[in-house]
Amino acid sequence: MARLIAADRPSTLKVETGRLARIDVPMIVVFMAAASMIAIVVLLLLFISWQGIQLFVKDGYSPGTILSPTWDPLANTPAFGLLPFIAGTLVVTAGALLISTPLSVGLAAFLSEVAPNWARSVVQPALEIFVGIPSVVWGWLGLTTLVPFLSDTFSGPLVVSLPVVGKVFSMPGFLTGFSWLAGSLVLSVMILPTITSVSYDSFRAVPQELRTGSLALGTTRWQTIRHILIPAALPGILTAVVLGMTRAAGEALAVQMVIGNSPTLPAAITQPVTTLTSQITLDMGNTVFGEPWQDALWTMSLVLLVLSIASVVLVRLINKRRMPL
Amino acid sequence: MINGYRRIGALALAATLVAAACSSAGASPTPTPAPTATPTPAAMTDTPAASTASTSTASTPTPAATPQCVSGSITTSGSTALQPLIDAAGKQYVKECPGATITVNGGGSGTGLSQVAQGAVQIGESDVKAETKLPAADAAKLVDHVIAKQGWIMVTNKDVTGVTNLTTQKATDIWTGKITNWKDVGGPDMPIVLIFRPQSSGTRATFKSVVLHGATEATGGQTLTEDSNGAVTTAVTKTNGSTSVIGFAYYNDPSNKPLLNGLQLDGVDATLANMTAGTYKLSADGNLYTLGTPAPGSLTDAFLAYLMGPEVQGTIIPSLSYAPVVPVK
Description:
By secondary structure, chain A is an all-alpha fold. Chain A is built from 15 helices and two strands. The interface between A and B is large, with 58 and 52 residues.
């Protein structure tokens, strides 16, 4: 385009440079915005990393502490094992993904391939509203309705008498409803719109030729979705799942309210567990800047940061693979 | 619709702002509580009485009915248990002294102590003594002003019928996991669910030292941890067989009281009168810390004097379910 203009009107080239000089100011503003964004990210990484290693540098704990299962900050020699929190974050996130992924991908396939226009125009705004609901609202709903519901329903005699399920649900702890399961359920609702919308976009990005080609071979719509569209959209779906995972792992308030926050290794889906984020929010206001306890919280933040960087890298790798399509 | 990079960027921005706030607080060069106004003659004459009242709990307060007005602005942060009191007193002071601005923040006892030690705020509120949280060198620089006593009450879910009193021994057995069923303390046959505050919380530290005498609490299985007085109250009302410890103010809230059973400790009712008399043990000082003794004539000094005066001690403190620390006529 630019070359075309230059070729058409060579005599105006001088004026063009003048114009360029005039648009320098907005250019600088935009450039500064981009540069400050990068600077902020770099500063953030440096700050969290610096604070996160204080537990090892200043307080003299060995880095192996991260994988120790003992968390006892009030003991005579305080123990800051982060394994219960890391494990809790991983299992609660995994539970949420297991519940949410099939629902979200199914919903995305429905919206993209099956739904008539009017249904799409109802479901999409609904999803957007979902995204906008603050996490504390989900947590509050979970605390006041989900937790008592789980407690009343699954500790009842009928469920407990069931063969395998009953055994899990009668393990100590479920009496209260505050549990790994409650955390995963709340999170699965929260990440549903994320996974759905990104998957939806990747279904829409599949070339129309693949659909028509498949249908021309006499396949049903279900066969087309299952054998053509899902494989073709798979990198996008995986990206969606990773984004959902990042959101789930980083969520603090809603999880903290329903999970019971018991710093023990997760044993059963019905028992109270804890996560990195919920422990940080529980302790940050009551600990003092610079004491080992708060340094351990910074180390938790660093672990979270590493987890989210890892997932960003994962998303980029997946997207790179998608390029040839 | 969802842009991953935008989300990450927003997250980074938010976190950096927090980081910047922390580091600027740490770098604050002047640790003195910054008295701004040059004292007026009136303030000068009042100063000796005012400063004794503010630094010592035993001394008699200034009898003046109206607060000594100093203009300027101060910021406080710290304990959420004390926040309602400081908030109410601060609003009242500002109403009577329009030249003053008092900003009241929460954040938790640890935040209050850290920030006042750094000079980031003029007053830090804490449920526990500074020595238990801060390094000795930092704690020594702070001056403690006890302005009220706060009390906590053991509560249970409504379905725990027949239990109205726990001895210190029984409470210890329950909270350390020796007794796990309400039937062993005269209640129904129902497992006990313990709802803790976080280990770092002032409420938990007070309960642990006063009632449990330092014994290690139960963990795992049926123990839960909730973040705040409000969340604990909700969890107790919603969870069968649960018990916890909450502040008087939350128990006396008309919307909570019908949903909870309040327990006596060693046969003593959890009332402000018993707490003041010293028979009800589950209580602790509400501490306000300043970095050094506040300069006479400063707003910090005047506000602390006001907190010890009859208006706050006689009216505001009892109305918010705290106990006054100076006798009220």
